[in-house]
Amino acid sequence: MRKERPLASGLPSDRHQYIRQQLQQHGRVLAGELAATLGVSEDSIRRDLRELAANGVCQRVYGGAIALRPSDTSFEQRRREHPGRKARLAATAVRQLRPGQFVFLDGGTTNLEIARALPPDLPLTIATNAIPIAAELFGKKQLEVLVLGGSLNHKSGDTAGTIATRMLQAMHPDICFLGTCSVDRELGVGTVMAEEAAFKRMLVEQCGQTILAVTNEKLDTASPFAVAPLADIGLLILEPDADPSRLAHLQASGVPLRMAD
188 - beta bridge partners? Predict the structure, then answer.
């Protein structure tokens, strides 16, 4: 029996809808596979991908495209999303710590859960540029807390700019928990703002080991600004139900992986 095509592929609008669905489900698409499935030329698919990329839906990569993470959500919105899943990642993350270490907690709602999960009997020195994380650490007397100053981003709750950068230059943490908007095997770790990306790049350079705890929806996605290749990540902590195909992409990159309990 002849296999039916998924839609009336002659219309660009129909193809765009189908490509959007595939990006949402799988994170990435290949031009050759789309052309074969939809019965059109690869040139047509490449034009479709260029148009979708111009509209902020995806980012072109060699042979296809990957989903582009949205950048219009605030810290408060993100804090309400999947708190249980983030707490599970955090529980695994804090088990990587040892007494007396110097730890940098970068901004982000998963890192906020890491701050909440810190054991009360674990003495650490913690630096952060995230005001919500600093507030969470307030009163935990086993911790020495250093808060980076600078210009406050009211959307993310983080400080950045010259003051924060100069303070970071004087630090050499043992471990940093890096915040991110996207993770891809080819494009690495990304974020949505240029100044934020520059700060995170320096953070990776200054720290002995970089750990990334990532929720499923960030896998196989892209952001406008690059932070670091996966080769610079010392450990990637993932949810136990991560999509097998996306997990395989990351395993192929060689980055050390650990699944949350």
Answer: 184
CA distances from 191 to 145, 156, 158, 182, 226 (A): 25, 12, 13, 7, 7
What stretch(es) of the chain map to CATH 1.10.10.10? 12-67
DSSP code of 150?
A: S
Encode pLDDT of 49-67 as tens digits: 988 888 878 888 878 888 8
Q: Tokens standing for 159?
A: 């400080």
Domain 12-67 is found in CATH 1.10.760.10: no
Q: Which residue has the higher pLDDT, 51 or 134?
A: 134
Please give, one letter per residue, the 3-state secondary structure of 180-231. CCEEECCCEEEECCHHHHHHHHHHHHHCCEEEEEECHHHECEECCEEEECHH
> Would you place residue 212 in the very low, low, confident or very high pLDDT band (cuts 50, 70, 90)?
very high
Per the structure block, which two tokens stand in for 102? 């110097």
Question: In the CATH hierarchy, which fold is given to the domain comprising 77-259?
Answer: Rossmann fold (3.40.50)
Q: Which tokens in the block code for residue 82?
A: 């999947």
For residue 8, the model assigns a pLDDT of 47
Instruction: Pick 145 or 23 by higher pLDDT.
Output: 145
Side-chain-side CA neighbours of 155 within 13 Å: the count stands at 7
- Name the amino acid, one letter, at 34: L
Between residues 70 and 235, which one has the greater pLDDT? 235
Write out the residue limits of the CATH 3.40.50.1360 domain(s) in the chain.
77-259
